[in-house]
Input
Amino acid sequence: MRSNRLAQAVVFGGLMFFAASHAPGLFGESATNEGVGLAGKTPPRKRSPLLDYKFTNELGQAVSISDFHGQALAITFFFTRCPMPEFCPRLSKNFQEASRKLSASSEGFTNWHFLSITFDPVIDTPAVLKAYAERYEYDPRHWSFLTGPEDKIREFARLSGVKADPDNGLINHNFRTLIIDATNHLQMVFPMGGDLSEAIVSEMRKAGAVARPRSREAITTIPAK
Output
């Protein structure tokens, strides 16, 4: 999603980050520019009920986003049949590499969790997700793979800025990796693929240290190409 109201740019690890006046609507932020006032602010919006919805993880357990309150979250979207190495496999590899780095940290940072959400729930059953997760040497204490009803997945993805459409038996989609702070507020949006592991680690450490709700001006995003 490209914002036409961008402020302060920050360079990190060769990537350009921009302060955004709005962000996906899942966490109570506006998904569009509509309603943005002269000061670049909008009235607070209600968080989506989907944050409390019980999806199903790779172990067959009921899990909601709200269950992870108090932890830094990274959320991305994928499907297990994706044949493009730089698409879903790269997103999963980002989480794999970031997991290793966070787990090996000597800083005592443990309140973090990764969520990989499939937008192919008919195929990606909990058993399929578990087999896929094991290929990436996942630790279920810090990484979950979620599935659920198609309508719930579709709405969750839409509110996160993800577009996914059937394409010759596969799924054509864009990229979104969201970083959510420990108070369940959106901190960062990465609207691209590629190697993001270092950036994810850095943002997760910051997100885990947040102890109070952040203002809209504190949310950052990178313009999608």
Q: What stands out?
A: The first helix runs from residue 88 to 103. The chain has one domain: 56-221. The first strand starts at residue 6 and ends at 12.
